[in-house]
Amino acid sequence: MRLIAGNWKMHKTASETEEYIKSFLKFVEHPESREILLCPPFTSLYIAGKLLEGTGVKLGAQNCHYEREGAFTGEISIPMLKELGCEYVIVGHSERRHIFGEDDELINRKLVACLEEGIRPILCVGEKLEDREAGMTFKVVETQVRLALSGLEEHTDRIDIAYEPVWAIGTGVPATPEDAVSVHRFIKELLKDINPKNEGRTRILYGGSVKPGNAGDFMKHSEIEGLLVGGASLDPESFAKIVYSF
Length: 246
Ligand code: PEP
What we know:
Layout: E1 3-7, H1 14-25, E2 35-39, H2 45-52, E3 58-61, H3 78-83, E4 86-91, H4 94-98, H5 104-117, E5 120-125, H6 129-133, H7 137-148, E6 160-163, H8 177-194, E7 204-207, H9 212-219, E8 226-229, H10 236-243
Parallel strand pairs: 1-2, 1-8, 2-3, 3-4, 4-5, 5-6, 6-7, 7-8
Helix pairs in contact: 1-2, 1-10, 7-8, 9-10
The structure holds phosphoenolpyruvate.
């Protein structure tokens, strides 16, 4: 089933979350026809989990720590997320990589922990503008995928991957659906090489300036198995239009 995920980033207080979800749920029909996922900030997960219970709309977090507990001031563990109802966690978002310095090794440790703890990670990969201009898109994506999945070759069916070109995130300049499809095909081939037994069992989502007006153009392509939506997921009506764009 295709997955449409909203990444709110650092937006919305708990009370704003409550208002959003009450409004968003009015737009939701046939939740069984697609997977719908909301990823609010940590401080909103409790209220979101309560409001989404039994609705078919799923809850995810934007980040996690790889240890279950310990002296890691300011961090949040996977058991903490699961108790609030999170079924998903975004790992290696470009803002985590490029603003907070997360490297491939840390991202790999987080993925290992997600699979051990039983939460489904959405691994984000994507090239910067200078990589694309230097013709390095496939190389960069390959390195990120291989390092992130190192040691997890058996479990590629328990992970989703979001291809999010960094230059398209929050810029209003999406990749063309054709460019996205070519990277998605490349990632699919790569995954087949990593573990042929799991061929076709990892969903590849696209993310980067998806809006109600262009979501359908991406979702026309069978290689695009979902969307990760930032800015346009912050308004319930706009996110609902994206969810029902196909
Ligand atoms: C994102 O945060 O993953 C994202 C794709 O953001 P935006 O939709 O705003 O480009």
